[in-house]
Amino acid sequence: MKKERKIRIVHLCAALLLTAALAVSLGFFADRQNSYAAEIGALYDAAYYSAVDNLGDIENKLKKVGVATSARLQRELLEDIYTSSEVTVGFLATLSGKNDEIEPALKFVNQLGDYSRYLAEKADAEGLDEREREKLGELTDIVEKLNEAFLAAGEDVASGGNIYNALGKGITALDGIHDMIDSGNVDYPELIYDGPFSDGLNDRETKFLSGKGTVSPETAVETAKLRFGSEFTYAGEGTLGIDTYLVVSGERSVQITKAGGYVVQYSDASIPSGSAYKDSDELTASATEFLRQLGYASMKAVWISEQTDTVYINFAYTQDDVVYYPDIVKVKVDRYTAAVTGMEAMNYIYNHTERELPAFGPDTGISLPEGFERKSLVKCLIPTEWNTEIAAYEVSGEYGGDTYYVYFDAETKNEVRIMRVIKNGNEGNLIV
């Protein structure tokens, strides 16, 4: 009897140990499952946001192709669309593993990439014909709607929805996604937020400071006091990637170049008091005078981005009616007082130098697509991707409901660059 009881106790202990072990194991696996779920969720989120970015890039370049007339530029844009499509397909494939309704979008973007690669080769050899340009216009419409569906899904998630359900509903609503480009039926054998050329050249030589003598920290303090009318103190080295002094006064800070003693950055964090709403002309005049007093003369406003309380204006150096886009200075102005609350002149410091006046041939021979409503023609100098500068004619106008700035080589009249104004996010218009 005792033996039987001992056996039962052993069995009970074994069962309890097994139950405890199983509970630990289940807890461990539950933790791992939760961890994996979190990792997979993060993976899907990353795929979604990357897909949105790439679809926006594809839409932007498709619209540019619609404006481009030179074979070289058409080819470059189409090659970029092909590359972006390949990348986007990977992100959509990740999302389709969770949602079968994304499959049509994946197939569409894949076909769009193939078609763009084919047209890129054709454009390089003979250009695009009218039928191909019309087809690209149709594809652009689909990409725009697809982009809207993805963005709407993000808004749904932000308000507590589920990204997979939202994407599924949005893409299912695009019933015509295959009607305009059926699988196998395509004939294989075609975002200015911060102003044009706001990044300047990639060459990091400070041309404007070349040969200028070094000033002391004490001189930098006196320069700030003279320019801005209050006491400043030296706060150490600057943080702009070039040699500067940082001087401060209350909520104002100024960075001044060691070579030459030029104000290269200014910030005023105080909130100006004012109630009168200033118009763009008054704000531009205030910013122009501010730059003149700092020694930045002959500057022309070329871009304005208007927010509720603040207006951002880009200025470019101008000589003999030629706009020098590499020499940009950015200014931030308070809407109600017209007071300058920020300024940055890095592009000017890097690029401004004495130049020979560029040669401009007659402005005849500029080719624009039918329906392009031309607004203005400006002579300018623009930076290139090879860290050089070329003279160009800037033609601004409306096409397909968008605003474009198309740049033509001043001598050959070859199309060299297209920019499209982005109307969401940082809204703005060029001032020419």
User: Low-confidence runs (pLDDT<50, min 5 residues)?
Assistant: 1-34, 178-191
| Structural class estimated from helices and strands | alpha+beta
How helical, in percent, are the residues? 40-55%
What is the overall silhouette? globular
What gyration radius follows from the Cα positions, in whole Å? 30 Å
Mean pLDDT: 79
Give, in order, the helices and strands.
HHHHHHEEEEHEEEEHEEEEE
Intertermini distance: 105 Å
- Major sheet characteristics: 13 strands, mixed
Tell me the number of helical segments per DSSP (H or I, 4 or more residues long): 8
Assembly type of the chains comes to single chain
How many strands? 13
Strand content: 15-25%
Descriptors:
alpha+beta, 13-stranded mixed sheet, 22% strand, 432 residues, globular
Quick overview:
The protein is an alpha+beta fold.
Describe the structure.
This protein is an alpha+beta fold. Among the domains are: 8-175, no CATH class; 207-316 and 325-347, no CATH class. It contains eight helices and 13 strands. It has helices at residues 2-67, 71-96, 103-126, 130-158, 163-172, 217-228, 280-293, 346-351; strands at residues 233-237, 244-249, 252-257, 263-268, 299-306, 310-319, 322-334, 340-344, 373-383, 389-399, 402-409, 415-420, 429-430. Strands 1, 2, 3, 4, 5, 6, 7, 8, 9, 10, 11, 12 and 13 form a 13-stranded mixed sheet that branches. The chain starts with a helix and ends with a strand.
